[in-house]
Amino acid sequence: DTGVSQNPRHKITKRGQNVTFRCDPISEHNRLYWYRQTLGQGPEFLTYFQNEAQLEKSRLLSDRFSAERPKGSFSTLEIQRTEQGDSAMYLCASSLVLEGSYGYTFGSGTRLTVV
Amino acid sequence: GESVGLHLPTLSVQEGDNSIINCAYSNSASDYFIWYKQESGKGPQFIIDIRSNMDKRQGQRVTVLLNKTVKHLSLQIAATQPGDSAVYFCASRAQAGTALIFGKGTTLSVSS
């Protein structure tokens, strides 16, 4: 296992289309996180899962966004009716909850461009 | 709500100098802090972390200092190298079971 894998790396879509991104975490990690990052800004938290349960959702996550982690392994993030403001890097991270260590391992992200 | 920010958006240093990157946080209940490095086109990479019951932690060439009195966090990089050029983010956790909240980042440029 070489780390967190995200696909696709780049996605260009027309406004109004739906897009779906996939994240494969490190296999033994039980937590999976989605963040969004725009140019010059730090990652903004969207949502996270512990196993298959979605435990926290940000107010940034509008009803056009939905995330799933059906079997507690990979996760998908879907954006419906994309808008130009959705253009960003979407980062996935995973972690193993251990006493004293709470750091995440990030993937390389999916860059979304809405035209 | 929780917010985390950095004092300076950019920092330029000469190779071999020591670098200090600062961060302020707003939530006095934050119990965990972490520094990440992000190179262009890549996801953030873990550098070092510290829990709120500590005030200093050292790694390889890096030291994190935590001052809870003034809610300030700093990252010190010794003998900065060109490979250290990147954007550095601090992040904190409001409480157990919540996600990390990131600051805006400081771009470190190292010239040789």
Can you tell me about this structure?
The complex is a heterodimer of chains A (115) and B (112). Chain A is mainly beta and 115 residues long. Helix content of chain A is 0%, strand content 49%. In chain A, the strands form 2 sheets. In chain A, strands 2, 4, 5, 6, 9, 10 and 11 form a 7-stranded mixed sheet that branches. In chain A, strands 1-3-8-7 form a 4-stranded antiparallel sheet, with no helix packed on it. Chain A is globular. Chain A starts with a strand and ends with a strand. The mean pLDDT of chain A is 93. Chain B is mostly beta strands. Helices cover 0% and strands 54% of the residues of chain B. In chain B, the strands form 2 sheets. In chain B, strands 2, 4, 5, 9, 10 and 11 form a 6-stranded mixed sheet that branches. Chain B has a 5-stranded antiparallel sheet with strand order 1-3-8-7-6, with no helix packed on it. Chain B is globular, with a radius of gyration of 13 Å. The model of chain B has no long low-confidence stretch (mean pLDDT 92).
Task: Describe the structure concisely for a colleague.
The complex is a heterodimer of chains A (115) and B (112). Chain A has 115 residues and is mostly beta strands. Chain A has no helices and eleven strands.
Show the helix and strand layout.
The complex is a heterodimer of chains A (115) and B (112).
Chain A: E1 5-7, E2 10-13, E3 19-24, E4 31-37, E5 44-50, E6 53-57, E7 65-68, E8 75-79, E9 88-95, E10 105-106, E11 110-114
Parallel strand pairs in A: 2-11
Antiparallel strand pairs in A: 1-3, 3-8, 4-5, 4-9, 5-6, 7-8, 9-10, 9-11
Chain B: E1 4-6, E2 10-14, E3 19-25, E4 32-38, E5 45-51, E6 56-58, E7 62-67, E8 72-77, E9 86-93, E10 100-102, E11 106-111
Parallel strand pairs in B: 2-11
Antiparallel strand pairs in B: 1-3, 3-8, 4-5, 4-9, 6-7, 7-8, 9-10, 9-11
